[in-house]
Amino acid sequence: MQSELVDLEKKLRNAQLRPTKQRLALAQLLYADGDRHITAERLHSEAIEAGVAISLATIYNNLHQFTSAGLLREVVVDSSRSYFDTNIAPHHHFFHEQTGKLEDIAVNDLKVDNIPPLPEGMEISSVDVIVRVNSSRR
């Protein structure tokens, strides 16, 4: 447990983020169980359950700071819902519309073809694909 906190503190410092008590608590919740997709609201609930006194606004601020620092990847599934992904390696997602679950698709499992010519002076920085799925049973 102590070495995990030291590793998280180092991870934050390497990303140029000050390892405050709240940031360390959030990092522990985010990274304790491996890669995951989480909403700010769910992280807030987990923080409260863990006894971390923190507002939802502070959760959002820290998630965006973690994202800007390259520690998280934000996945916007629609205009009202974003997930934060601890797996920052290139990959795509299945979005289960009925349950709200986000699931990884390995980058090599999906081929993107026929990208139109780019605007002049532009280059591709990434390609993010979200495949929306529903249960076929009605």
From TrEMBL:
Coiled coil: none annotated. The keyword Lyase does not apply. Pfam families: FUR. Gene3D superfamilies: Winged helix-like DNA-binding domain superfamily/Winged helix DNA-binding domain. It comes from the Bacteria. GO terms for biological process: negative regulation of DNA-templated transcription; regulation of secondary metabolite biosynthetic process. GO terms for cellular component: cytoplasm. Keywords: Cytoplasm, DNA-binding, Iron, Metal-binding, Repressor, Transcription, Transcription regulation, Zinc. It is found in: Cytoplasm. GO terms for molecular function: DNA-binding transcription factor activity; transcription cis-regulatory region binding; zinc ion binding. Belongs to the Fur family. Homodimer. This is Ferric uptake regulation protein.
